[in-house]
Every structure is written in structure tokens, then in C-alpha cells.
Write a structure and sequence with these properties.
Chain lengths: 278, 376
Amino acid sequence: MASIDHLTKDFLRTKKLPHIWCPGCGNGIVTAALVRAIERADFDQRDVVIVSGIGCSSRAAGYLNFNTLHTTHGRALAFATGLKMARPELIIYVIMGDGDCSAIGGNHFIHSARRNIDLNAIVVNNHIYGMTGGQHSPLTPGGKKATTAPRGTLEREFKLLELARGAGATFGARGNAAQPRQLEQLIARAANHKGFSVVEALSPCPIAYGRRNKLGGPVDMLKEMKENSISIERASRKEQSELEGKTITGVLFDEDVPEYASEYYKSIGKSIPVRDNG
Amino acid sequence: MPETKPVLMQGNEACAEGAISAGVRFYAGYPITPSTEVAEKMAVRLPDLGGVFIQMEDEIASMAAVIGASIGGMRALTATSGPGFSLKQENIGYAIMAEIPCVIVNVQRMGPSTGVPTAPSQGDVMQARWGTHGDHPVIVFSPASVYETYYLTIAAVNLSQKLRQPVILLLDEVVGHMREKVTIPKDSKLMVEKASDKVPADWKPYDDKGLAPLVPFGFGHYYHVTGLFHDQYGFPTGDPPQVERSLERIHEKLMKYRDEVILTNYIGHKEPRVVIITYGCTVRSARAVVKKAYWNNRMPVGLLSLQTLWPFPDKEVKEVARKADVIIVPEMNMGQIVGEVERHVKDEAEVVPLNRYDGEMISPDQISEMIGRWLA
């Protein structure tokens, strides 16, 4: 296990801290889980790229000491697709918020899944547009309030991982900020998966979401997140009726299907360079 | 000059071949007439060269993928037409701000909106200048022939790399679809201006002292790339003096290389009374007129053709305005570049627009008739 010193010194841009996130925000927990997952995977630091979109969680890229690419709203996966195709040897994590990924970036999300390109999408789902002050997103649960849904949203939410799977993603997992060790393991497994992977990381936004919906403070939100979660292993032993209102965590699907970038390079008879660590 | 061979080629094909000659190995695009032949040519050629062709889900994604590939170190290009060019504006702005080299080809068709697919037009001149939000520098080339398309594409790629600035190639449907003889070098490697692969010891990705080379991702230089205003290392800043300075710097870098950025060509009388200023396929009609009027009949007429539309060739236009009494500006739109001509000519000469916007080319007769009126 790596020391905390090593993780902060090598993988965080400590001069760029403190971060911009509100007190009680889950983004720091998710970012820390990502950092530990990268360490666990033991990649060459030079090969790791963090791409992000626009929104609170996407600011994580600026705090991480790798090649980092903070793109335009919703487009992170499209930038990452170009980079991966040009440099298939790179390991690319794509951090997006729920609105960034599933609303404005929805088209790029389903098509990245369809191609099964080896990108590691981490969707930090706090059910709200935080940076703009609390508007509803496609992942805001029906009935919940937002500044743009003062009486509760009438829209139905996407089931993000089902959407991803239906579109062709070959790895899907869900974790949350209340169970950061599990989240770390899920992100590590996703990166080792060859193909398009999605990790949905549920994360509390006490300021723009919790307060308006009377969900309590950060501790209450994390506590509820933990109590409402059940791992897929435990869930498989329960009756359907017992799972009512529960959020299932863990690896929900993991399939072995040819990956786009490597198939492309194979088709043109070109090998993907491997770093010589000598 | 390397050995050449003459071939019959379409403008769009010449654009693809020019890109390949200039070392472009990445193409991302979305189908749209009248630009699709660029994509089709790239889809055939790039895999054989070890390059990447990818058809993206939309125009926005194509532009994003091109920028991503460029950050990875591949020379990258995308092609589209008006409706797609509108969609690309968001990420064109990003590439300008983050200083990522790339080339965007817009084979113009008649708009607004879906317009007349695919009648020729030169209606995107101002969109190419101001299509993305904010005060931003742009370089826009507009070729008049298949030959010019080939060579301006090469220039666009090289300049884009050198200045870390997106370059827009504004073709029109006429130039994109017509076939002409063009001579292209057999050994295309000679056309690539190779950037130095040595990273200076004190390298900063956005050095405010000058033009820092782009070091691709994956080589251990852990810098940040963002569309936010940023410091010399790429990290976000809202500091007013730094914001002001970086905006000035991205504009100034174009003028440092003005000779390579601004390309024009003058033919005709040394002391002209009437000068035609135009660009793109309209140059062809104007050239036919000037050839006849000046070369055959020694009339005091001239033609200033603009290969570069933006930054606007202000000095070159002022120079002809000092000699001429009248400047005629034919354009296949309701008058876009003519306003810029007027702005720089001021009272030095009379500026007369000649516009056509029915989806047809401006004919040599239309231009001769206009000249005749002023020389009568």
C-alpha cells in the first residue's frame, strides 16, 4: 500500500489546492479514490491522461499531476476518442458530471459505448448541475426539486448504466462517496478492462441538491447513501421485494468484446507501442 | 522543388492530398455535402499510411476528436460545410484558446440554415471570422483553384503547427467540386516542416515570452490544457493583468509571422484605375476579365486576389487603393468582405460591391460590365 505522502506528492498538484469544491462535497472523495486506483494499477505516470468536461467534478483534472485535459461542456469523451486513436498506448480516464455526461454529452456517451473504445469514464453523479447553482439534470430523480424545477421535476431520469450497456459499453460499475474503498476498487477494475468502461460514482451535493430537497447535511447524505446501498453480491441473494428503494453497487456488467482502437490498429497492420521502462 | 507529376484532380481531393503531403495523419469528420469527398479520400488513404480515419457521431465530436489527436502529437484535419461549420464553432474556440494546432475545411454552400444544398456560395466569410464567441484571432485561407487548394492546405497545416493556431480553409462548392490539372510532388515528405522534438529545459506550455512548442501528452510533461484563461503552465487564472496579456499574446503571434499568414496576389496594370478585389472561385471570373482587359487591351485594370481573408490583408488593400480610383468587390453573398475593404480604403478610392446570391457564380460578363461603367 502506497503512503499518503507518495500519493499527494506525485499525483496531486498540491500548489493548486485548496480546491474549489464546497464543504461537504463528494468530489474530493471520488478524486481521492481515483488517485488510489491509479496507484493500485501501477501504470507508468507518463501514460496516464485525465480528460474532463465542464462542471464541478471536472475541475478535478486541474488538481491531478498527469497530462490533464479540461475540455468543453459535454465533449470530454469526443476529445478523449481522438487522443486514444492517435495514442492508443495511453490510459485515459474521463471525469464527467451527470449533466455533462448524460445531457449535453449524451450523444458522445452512447457512441463511445457503441465503439467500445478503451476509455475509462467516471461519471460523478450528484443528481444536479452544481456549478450553475442547482438545475435539474437527466439524472435528477423524478419529483426532486431544483432551481429549474421548483415544484419537483416531472422528467424521468436516465438509468445511466443500463443506457451505457444498451449502447454497447462492456464494463459498468456503481460506487459511492460513502464507500470510498469499494469505489477505488471499481475504478481500478475499470481501468484494467479493455473496452469502454463506465463507473457511476454517486456523490453528495449538500449545497445545491441536498438543501433544496431537505436531505440534511453532508453527514446525513453520506449516511443515507451508505444505508441505501447494497452490493450486487448481497443483492443476488435477496428477493426483489427486499431491494425496493435500494441502490445496487459493484460491477454490474463486465464483458469481453473486441476494443475499437486495438481493432483499428490491427486492421491497418500497425502495432501499438509499448513503453520501454528500462 | 521536388519532382512533380501532373494529375487531374478535384478540389476536395486536392485538399485531402495536400493534407497528407503536409503530414496530416488524423481525420475525424461527419458526412456533409459538398465536402464529403475530403473524408472519403482520407478514409482510403490514411490507413495505408498508418494514420487514423474516424467518422464521428456529429460535427462537434469531429472537431473535439481532431483536437484530442493533435494533443497526442498527430497532425489533424476535419472538413465540413456550412451547417457543420456552425456546430464546430464551439471547439474551434477551444483550440484557439488552448493553442492546439488543427485545420478546419469548410466547403461553403448556400445558407443560411440548410439553404440550397448544394449551390455554391461565399456566405461564411464572416462566420469564419466571428463564428465562435469572444475576441479571438483566426487565420482563414480561401483558394481559387485546385492547385491553390493543394498548396494552401499544406501551408495551413504547417502554419497551424508553427503558430499553435487553428487554420480555416474556406473553399467554395465550385473549387471543391471542379477538376483541374495540378502538379503534386512525388516525395511528399519534403512538404512537412518538421518541428523540433527537443523540449527546452525551461519549457512552459504557454510561455508568455514567445511561441512555445506543443509537447504531446505522454512524454512526462504534466501540464494542463483548458479553455479557461490560464497561466504559462496552463492552469486556470482570473487575474485581470494575466487575462489581458494572454488574450493579447494569442493575437500578436499571428502578426509576428505576417508574411506567412497574409497571402495575396496582384495581376494587371501597374497604375490601375479600377481594381477588383476578390477571393475563392470568384477570382476565376475576375481573372478572365483582367486578362482580356489588361493583357489584350492594355486597359488600366488590376486584380488583387486574397488567398488570406483573415487576418484581413489591410496593407495590401490600402496599397492598391492609393493607386486606384475605384475598387470593385465581387462576392457570392450580400456583401461581407466589402465592408472590411471599405474600412481600410476609407476615402482613398470608391468601393463598389458586386453581389450575387442566387446560388450561381458571378460571371466574367457581370464584372466586365461593371468595369466598363467606370472606365467609360
